[in-house]
Design brief:
Oligomer: single chain
Structural class: mainly alpha
Distance between the termini: 83 Å
Radius of gyration: 21 Å
């Protein structure tokens, strides 16, 4: 006969190890002034086993026997369950202009409805799943679209779109045949638009994108403005339009020139070591081949 204490012990042993916890410090929403809990991913004990780096600078984390597959990116966004304002955690104290607050409050139902179409029945009040994490990012994109240039919404929308493409790809692997790969590809094209727009805004000084503290695009390393130039070229190569061949060649040629200039390709590149340089060289070769092949 099994004692009650043994049963309790077995239940504890079978309980899934915690991936996250809710902080004691509440977040005050700058839009509706309501408080909500901040979910934080726990670290250590083999939760994050770093794997390879993809061409678009996404760090793959290998599943562990104890925790399974984890998705650190989903914990980088917070969302108010009352008004559906979603932001990078550090930006909850930066929404200070009343016009921004009013605009976000007035569009709260619009955000909720749009996200429900793509991620129906998402939940902001419990430990988040990969599905909920995708909804958080989509809410964040809709939130940043309403903010003024001081908060650098274009640059943030660029890497948030790219992150959402990674997460929806993972969602497609977990639950195939629900069009999540279609959404992933669409987010790559959206990221292309925002990365290129961020460069334009930086050039004309309408939005000082280069002042952002961390460009990501992932959470494990900041690849800076070099990463922005590289990703703009990579996304153009992989996801740019192909209906107008002359326009495509023009854009690829511009990307090739920008990458060569910023990475010093063809010269000594000792001042820019690491994986980004190698990936930039590979992209430069691909751009050169396509531009040159189509010119002859």
């Amino acid at each position: 006969m099994v004692s009650s204490s043994s049963k309790k012990k077995n239940q504890v042993e079978k309980k899934k190890p915690a991936i996250s916890y809710f902080s004691k410090d509440k977040i005050i929403c700058p839009v509706c002034k309501k408080s909500f809990e901040k979910e934080v991913m726990r670290s250590g004990n083999g939760r994050m086993i770093a794997g390879g780096l993809t061409d678009d600078l996404h760090r793959i984390f290998e599943p562990s026997a104890k925790f399974g597959r984890v998705y650190p990116l989903i914990y980088d966004i917070g969302a108010c369950p009352n008004c559906y304002t979603a932001l990078l955690w550090q930006d909850f104290t930066e929404i200070k202009k009343k016009e921004d607050q009013d605009k976000l409050f007035q569009t709260r139902d619009e955000r909720k409805d749009k996200v429900n179409i793509v991620f129906p029945h998402f939940n902001l009040k419990h430990e988040r799943s990969l599905f909920d994490g995708c909804a958080y990012y989509y809410l964040a994109l809709l939130t940043y679209s309403k903010l003024n240039p001081d908060l650098l919404p274009t640059m943030k929308s660029a890497f948030l779109s790219l992150r959402l493409s990674w997460l929806t790809h993972e969602l497609d692997l977990a639950v195939p045949n629900h069009n999540f790969q279609f959404i992933s590809d669409a987010m790559k094209r959206k990221a292309l638009f925002f990365y290129q727009q961020a460069i334009i805004c930086e050039t004309n000084r309408s939005e000082k994108s280069s002042t952002l503290g961390n460009f990501g695009p992932d959470m494990d390393k900041n690849y800076g403005w070099d990463g922005v130039i590289y990703l703009s070229g990579l996304l153009e190569y992989n996801y740019g339009q192909q209906d107008d061949l002359q326009l495509r060649l023009k854009k690829l040629s511009e990307s090739k020139t920008a990458i060569a200039r910023i990475f010093g390709l063809g010269k000594s590149s000792k001042n820019k070591p690491g994986p980004l340089l190698e990936k930039a060289r590979d992209l430069y070769d691909k751009l050169s081949k396509e531009v040159n092949d189509d010119e002859f």
